Amino acid sequence: MNELSVKETANLLSLHNNYVILTHKRPDGDTLGCGAALCSALRRAGKRAVLLRNGGATEKFVPFIERFYTRRGFQISNEYIITVDVASLTMLGDRLQFDVDLAIDHHGSNTRFANNLLLDADASACGQIILKVIKELCGSVTKEEADLLYIALSTDTGCFQYGNTNADSFRAAAELCDLNADVAALNHLFFRTFSKKRIALEGAVMSSLRSYSDGKITMAVITRSMISEAGAGDDDMDDLAALPGRVAGTLVSVTVRENDRGYSKLSLRSTGEVNVSDICSKFGGGGHAMAAGCEIELVPEEAAEVIRAAIEEALP
Q1: 160: exposed, middle or buried (C-beta count within 10 Å: 0-12, 13-18, 19+)?
Q2: What is the pLDDT of residue 96?
């Protein structure tokens, strides 16, 4: 495995002509925005590039990325494979049966699964890294790419509210503004408008919050019946993990969400005193010190008790 600089990555991308870009399962704005922006830049550089279709993308994102998607029924063959915002092969699910040629990522927990890796664990979002790669590769950034990278950066920082936000986050945002990213419209779409079903689900989640360890842990257990009663669908699930952390005094917030098999998907957020990536790694997950996730093959109530115990061991 070779660890690369931005310049070395751009040089490597100039050597090949046929690319397929992969995003992680349950894709967020960072992986989708990065994948589409890099695909656009590679095409401008005269390369054949496609973004592997990801059925988990919610409707808010689809208009921005669909023109880069592979055709339906596309099969990977001899393309150069790139992953963006992917820390481990488990984040791809069953979507890959080939070696990954290049990974571009910002997770400190990256497992070095790719043949080549561009990693900046200090970046708030992978979009900040892709911005540098595009400038090195093409010498310029289009407005469409700026929009996509602003989606990546803003969604991974919670519109610059999460603890991973730093000075470089704001510098990248300012640069994207200078590149004519439609900041006002994107902020309104992704952070200020919600469906009635999502609002109903939020109400159910907030009214059922649980508090442990003198308020240091706040947890939401989200069952399929809660989702069904709200009438919510996949498009209404974005960033539910942020809700428990709104409670004052919380050091670690948790959402335990029941999946289609009756087991549990967990998302943890921290104010910084506890490394939640370390906790999630014990269950085969990972992420960042202040935001991480994992899956546990237990029903939600059992998973809630298991993760509660693990967090309490790590509390200061």
Answers
A1: middle
A2: 65
In DSSP terms, which residues pair with 221 in a beta bridge? 256
pLDDT at 95 over 70: no
pLDDT for the residue numbered 127: 98
Task: Provide the β-strand partners of residue 102.
Answer: 82, 116
Q: What is the pLDDT of residues 261-290, one digit of tens each?
A: 999 999 999 999 999 999 999 999 988 899
Residue 311: both structure tokens together: 């967090």
* Bridge partner residues of 21 (DSSP): 51, 82
Cβ burial of 209 (10 Å; 0-12, 13-18, 19+) is middle
Nearest Cα to Cα of residue 80 among 21, 132, 37, 4 = 21
The answer to whether residues 253 and 244 touch, using CB atoms and an 8 Å cutoff, is yes
Considering the entire predicted model, what is its pTM? 0.89
DSSP-based helix, strand, coil % in the chain, nearest 5: 40, 20, 40
Q: For residue 120, how many other CB atoms are within 10 A of its CB?
A: 18
Lookup result for tokens 């993308």 = 57
Separation CA 263–CA 253 (nearest Å): 19
pLDDT tens digits for 226-261? 999 999 988 898 889 989 999 999 999 999 999 999
List Cβ neighbours of 191 (8 Å cut-off, separation of 6 or more).
Answer: 154, 159
Q: pLDDT exceeding 90 applies to what percent of the chain?
A: 87
- Give the domains, in start order, of the chain with CATH numbers: 2-191 (3.90.1640.10), 196-314 (3.10.310.30)
Spatial contact of 37 and 61, defined as CB atoms under 8 Å apart: no
Q: How far is CA 103 from CA 71, 120, 219, 255, 277, in A?
A: 23, 11, 33, 28, 20
**C-alpha–C-alpha distance, residues 100 and 80, integer Å:** 8
At what angle are helices 143-156 and 126-138 packed, to 10 degrees? 160
